[in-house]
């Protein structure tokens, strides 16, 4: 039994290779096309972090240290070795996890991750998610904001609040947003020390980037990948910060190529 | 018998930025470029408001300072700095810092040190007020907006312990603050410590203030919310078997203008509405979408189209009707304050926000004279609220 109770989305055949998905600002949506596509040939396990989705938030759980140790617990409790795929904020968690290392963590995919500081002290590597106008955030997060999938929420969701949204959706988004802030307000979305330890990542690693991401740019991604020994870097055209949502087919193809 | 107190609160606003700049800005707080603040004008404003405080000291109005940051609504910026100046230039009245932003400042021990110093300089005339801080302040101060109530209480506890410990260093290892060696000089002039106030209308917080016996002040809360807050305070004390609070535990801040005539006061009072119409404009990410501002279950009502907290009816008459402004000739204002006191179940300390918006220095000085000389005397020796209710 894990110490923490987590909501977990599971999809696919349990005997297939496991993919542990570590979500970004919102939990992995069961409605997302890429989940069904991945589940055709993989066993997908996607927990909601404490404070996100239906996972409870313990009163003292509020640092990246907690999050990394929680996911080490999650790995302990997975039946088999796994590929860990982290998205955005979850990419930061995945990178920390891979630096810590775990025998069941055998491959790593980072999708538009945050988590490190690269530029000078007056250069902002990562757009401030809580102090940027939602319209601007929406514009920067998507290759084509108008074509974002309905009912699945990535960055800039505040700009698309409409009366079609249910109260439950809004309450869930608000809770996720609050929880994200606990972990990532300051320093904003990075651990100043992480960059110095990425060399410890010893598993095959793919760094995937939406070519149009202007929350964290592909150049940031190239630099990130260069700090991880042997990591491959690939971009996905016509996608922003959420390539798995904007270009699910290209995203799944990249995962399949890497895993096989 | 209740002797009510009048306090003057001025935020030292800067209403001189061109309207087209303010219209184009997404926020007039936190992100408005400082190139729009002319230091010559600011220097004049500081002089004027300090002169107003000097007058308050002469006529017997207590003084409130506060701080907000990076915007047109407030030039104080560092309440302890301003309060220290006021402490030195006044001789008689009490001074309340309401307050420095303890949820933003990293070291409560430093805050306690500043306040202890001010208390000594003023020879024991300092009151210390605590505020949770608004969303724009989280941005200006780079403070995590989550869990700020817990952070605020721990900061208050550490400040209190710091002000009341005089036997050498003590250690603090809390959830939000650690300090292994706390030993503040000077110790405060008032023993065991200066009076604590807190500005809140959050009911669980009001209850905790009641248990602790701090002064509970509401800002523009209107009749119903203020009454509910004070009731919550009283009930929490009763539930904890603590003595019933006097009216001096309750305070209320309202816009206020006292003129020779109602007509004059209404005309000048209308200029205060600038505070509500112009100075609170803030970007959505610094207001309704800032994490931690509302419990998640309350967000749909705040986020749906048409939901807006921006006030709509801002005439003096409406503000008076809502209990958010006291304005008129001295007798009118006395009637308004007495009626407010009745309706909220008793309140001993009225904070007047007078030099606000486009109200001028001369207009403010006139209102202070009238408030002190003609309003305050009529608010002394008032019968207790309950007794009168029983007599009726």
List the helices and strands and how they pair.
The complex is a heterodimer of chains A (260) and B (392).
Chain A: E1 8-11, E2 18-22, H1 33-39, E3 43-47, H2 64-77, E4 82-87, H3 89-100, E5 105-111, H4 134-141, H5 167-184, E6 205-210, H6 218-226, E7 232-236, H7 243-246, H8 248-259
Parallel strand pairs in A: 2-3, 2-4, 4-5, 5-6, 6-7
Antiparallel strand pairs in A: 1-3
Chain B: E1 5-9, H1 19-24, H2 39-59, E2 62-65, H3 79-89, E3 95-98, H4 108-121, E4 126-130, H5 135-140, H6 148-164, E5 170-173, E6 178-182, E7 196-199, H7 203-212, E8 215-219, H8 222-239, E9 250-258, H9 262-269, H10 274-277, H11 299-303, H12 316-321, E10 325-328, H13 330-343, E11 349-353, H14 361-375, H15 385-391
Parallel strand pairs in B: 1-2, 1-11, 2-3, 3-4, 4-7, 7-8, 8-9, 9-10, 9-11
Antiparallel strand pairs in B: 5-6
Helix pairs in contact in B: 2-14, 3-4, 4-6, 7-8, 13-14
Listing every helix as H and every strand as E from the N terminus to the C terminus, the arrangement of chain B reads: EHHEHEHEHHEEEHEHEHHHHEHEHH
Form type of chain B: globular
Number of DSSP helical runs of chain A:
8
Strand portion of chain A, in percent?
A: 5-15%
> Mind telling me which CATH architecture of chain A this is?
3-Layer(aba) Sandwich
CATH topology value of chain A: Rossmann fold
**Biggest interface, CB < 8 A:** A-B, 25 and 24 residues
Q: pLDDT below 50 for ≥5 consecutive residues: which ranges of chain B?
A: none
Q: What is the subunit organization of this protein?
A: heterodimer
Could you say what the CATH architecture of chain B is?
Alpha-Beta Barrel
Low-confidence stretches of chain A: none
Q: Could you report the average pLDDT of chain B, rounded to the nearest whole number?
A: 95
> From N to C, what is the helix and strand string of chain A?
EEHEHEHEHHEHEHH
Strand order of the largest sheet of chain A: 1-3-2-4-5-6-7
Largest sheet of chain A: 7 strands, mixed
């Amino acid at each position: 039994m894990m110490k923490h109770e987590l909501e977990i989305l599971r999809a696919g055949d349990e005997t297939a290779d496991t993919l542990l998905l570590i979500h970004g600002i919102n939990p992995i949506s069961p409605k997302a096309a890429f989940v069904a596509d991945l589940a055709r040939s993989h066993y997908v396990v996607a927990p909601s972090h404490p404070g996100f989705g239906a996972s409870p938030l313990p009163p003292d759980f509020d640092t990246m240290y907690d999050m990394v140790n929680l996911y080490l617990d999650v790995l302990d409790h997975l039946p088999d070795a796994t590929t860990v795929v982290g998205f955005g904020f979850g990419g930061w968690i995945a990178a920390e996890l891979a630096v810590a290392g775990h025998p069941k963590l055998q491959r790593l995919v980072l999708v538009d991750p945050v988590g490190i500081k690269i530029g000078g002290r007056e250069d902002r590597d990562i757009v401030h998610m809580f102090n940027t106008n939602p319209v601007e955030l929406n514009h920067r997060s998507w290759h084509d904001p108008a074509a974002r999938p309905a009912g699945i929420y990535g960055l800039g969701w505040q700009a698309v609040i409409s009366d079609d949204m249910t109260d439950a959706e809004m309450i869930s988004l608000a809770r996720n947003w609050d929880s994200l802030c606990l972990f990532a307000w300051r320093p904003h979305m990075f651990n100043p020390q992480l960059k110095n330890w990425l060399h410890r990542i010893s598993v095959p690693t793919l760094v995937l980037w939406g070519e149009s991401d202007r929350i964290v740019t592909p150049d940031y991604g190239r630099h990130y990948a260069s700090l991880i020994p042997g990591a491959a870097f690939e971009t996905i055209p016509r996608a922003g910060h959420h390539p798995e949502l904007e270009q699910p087919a290209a995203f799944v193809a990249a995962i399949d190529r890497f895993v096989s | 018998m209740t002797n009510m107190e009048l306090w003057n609160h001025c935020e030292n606003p800067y209403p001189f930025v061109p309207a087209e700049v303010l219209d184009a800005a997404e926020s007039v707080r936190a992100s408005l470029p400082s190139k729009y603040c002319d230091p010559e004008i600011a220097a004049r404003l500081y002089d004027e408001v300090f002169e107003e405080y000097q007058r308050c000291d002469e006529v017997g109005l207590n003084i409130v300072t506060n701080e907000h940051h990076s915007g047109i609504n407030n030039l104080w910026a560092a309440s302890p700095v301003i309060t220290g100046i006021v402490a030195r230039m006044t001789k008689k009245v009490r001074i309340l810092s309401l307050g420095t932003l303890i949820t933003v400042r990293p070291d409560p021990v430093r805050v306690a040190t500043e306040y202890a110093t001010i208390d000594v300089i003023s020879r024991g005339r300092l009151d210390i007020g605590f505020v949770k801080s608004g969303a724009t302040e989280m941005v200006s101060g780079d403070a995590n907006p989550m869990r700020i109530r817990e952070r605020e209480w721990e900061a208050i506890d550490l400040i209190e312990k710091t002000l009341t410990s005089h036997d050498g260093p003590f250690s603090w290892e809390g959830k939000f603050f650690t300090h292994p060696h706390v030993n503040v000089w000077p110790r405060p002039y008032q023993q065991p410590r200066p009076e604590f106030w807190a500005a809140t209308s959050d009911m669980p917080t009001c209850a905790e203030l009641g248990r602790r016996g701090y002064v509970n002040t509401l800002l523009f809360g209107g009749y119903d919310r203020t009454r509910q807050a004070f009731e919550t305070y009283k009930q929490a004390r009763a539930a904890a078997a603590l003595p019933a609070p006097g009216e001096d535990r309750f305070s209320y801040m309202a816009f206020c203008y006292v003129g020779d005539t109602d007509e004059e006061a209404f005309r000048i009072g209308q200029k205060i509405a600038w505070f509500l119409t112009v100075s609170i404009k803030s970007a959505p990410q610094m207001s309704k979408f800032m994490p931690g501002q509302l419990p998640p279950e309350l967000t749909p009502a705040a986020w749906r189209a048409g939901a807006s907290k921006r006030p709509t009816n801002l005439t003096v008459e409406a503000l008076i009707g809502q209990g958010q402004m006291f304005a008129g000739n001295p007798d009118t204002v006395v009637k308004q304050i007495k009626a407010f006191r009745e309706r909220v179940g008793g309140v001993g300390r009225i904070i007047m926000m007078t030099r606000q918006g486009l109200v001028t220095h001369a207009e403010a000085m006139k209102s202070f004279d009238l408030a002190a000389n003609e309003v305050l005397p009529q608010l002394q020796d008032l019968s207790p609220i309950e007794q009168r209710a029983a007599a009726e």
